[in-house]
Write a structure and sequence with these properties.
Layout lengths: L3 H14 L4 E7 L14 E6 L9 E5 L2 E7 L2 H8 L7 H4 L2 E5 L2 H15 L4 H13 L1 H9 L4 H22 L11 H6 L8 H10 L3 H26 L5 H5 L3 H17 L2 H19 L12 H4 L5 H21 L10 H10 L1
Parallel strand pairs: 2-4
Antiparallel strand pairs: 1-2, 1-5, 3-4
Organism: Alkalicella caledoniensis
Protein name: Polymerase beta nucleotidyltransferase domain-containing protein
């Protein structure tokens, strides 16, 4: 079958009746790579310029092969060019068969140039991390899969997200997918540890627990790789500059913990302990000081003996105060409201 005939029929119709409604027609996929076979379809899309142009959307069968006259708006293409979708390669790898005007051609080429502009390393690292974050819901479903069918389905969902994340980290696109996806990823510069072995597990194993273990590790390894790349471009922020004025707010968490321990309120104690820990981890993470220097007050929480937590939180506060003093961070303290009033008058 001459697959391109479908595109030719569409283009003939555009030229005859929709010339002012369609900006361009683009083919992509196996046809572009000259890898079609007897069961291949024709991957293609067109960009409408008017609402009327969307009338040409149609999915249909010929000789058992599915075809799709797929309409994509300029706005969606702009999003793809920003690497907001996995399928950016339909822009970067697509072959234009028709354009309505020089203006349409120029607009498409501008969008393609945007998609190919990948110099912003930090942007792509951020996008890669966002994709990894989406795997946790899928991994939760994998952990709770009751049969091999569900396990494979959720593992495949993780594959889609992680390979997209890896492509983003490499500032490129997933071009081929499916049977060629593993090699495509392995040919990239930045690849998670043990990717090939872990990736293969869902394809070669019937053991649900083995699939769970492998894909949990694949998520962690991908996260580690992204973190390493992020650290390469991160410039530490001065501890003094970043936490100046911070302790004055955090002291209220200490007070909540002390009060809750005094009255035996284990709920507030654990909430406030966790919030305090996360606040300091966030504040320290971009500085030269590690939050690991602080006592583990969450680990010290014991519902049957809350005094243990109380003692360690006091140590935690003393440690924070020592770090502030050692790094020259001044803490603003007024002895009373009168002193505050005098300060306000001086402003």
């Amino acid at each position: 079958m001459k697959l391109l005939k479908a595109a030719e029929i569409l283009i003939d119709k555009i030229k005859k009746d929709y010339k002012n409604d369609i900006a361009c027609v683009v083919v992509m996929g196996s046809y572009v790579y000259n890898e079609t076979h007897s069961r291949s379809d024709l991957d293609m899309y067109f960009v409408p310029k008017t609402e009327r142009g969307f009338n040409l959307q149609k999915v249909f069968l010929i000789d058992g092969i599915g075809f799709d006259f797929w309409a994509i708006s300029w706005e969606r293409l702009e999003g793809m060019a920003n690497h907001d979708e996995r399928i950016t390669s339909i822009i970067t790898e697509g072959k234009m068969l028709y354009y309505g005007s020089e203006e349409d051609l120029n607009r498409f080429n501008e969008i393609k140039a945007k998609a190919l502009h990948v110099s912003d390393v930090e942007k792509f690292i951020g996008k890669a991390k966002e994709q990894v974050d989406t795997t946790y819901k899928k991994y939760f479903k994998l952990l709770n899969a009751g049969n091999i069918s569900d396990a494979r389905k959720h593992a495949m969902g993780i594959i889609f997200s992680l390979t997209y994340a890896i492509a983003l980290l490499n500032r490129t696109t997933v071009k081929r997918g499916r049977g060629k996806l593993k090699k495509e990823i392995m040919d990239m510069e930045l690849v998670p540890k043990d990717f090939a072995t872990l990736y293969d597990t869902v394809f070669i194993s019937n053991d649900i627990d083995m699939i769970r273990k492998a894909y949990g590790q694949l998520i962690r390894n991908t996260e580690d790789l992204i973190q390493m790349e992020h650290e390469k471009i991160s410039k530490p922020v001065s501890f003094k500059d970043n936490v100046s004025g911070y302790y004055e707010e955090m002291i209220n968490f200490y007070n909540k913990i002390y009060h809750s321990c005094e009255i035996g309120d284990k709920y507030t104690a654990l909430f406030a302990t966790t919030e305090l820990t996360m606040e300091f981890e966030g504040a320290f993470s971009v500085t030269e000081v590690s939050a690991n220097e602080l006592p583990d007050i969450i680990g010290a929480y014991a519902p049957e003996n809350i005094d243990t937590l109380l003692q360690l939180v006091h140590e935690h506060q003393r440690k924070i105060e020592g770090l502030l003093e050692n790094h020259g961070v001044e803490v603003t303290v007024f002895k009373d409201f009168q002193e505050l009033e005098e300060y306000m008058k001086s402003l």
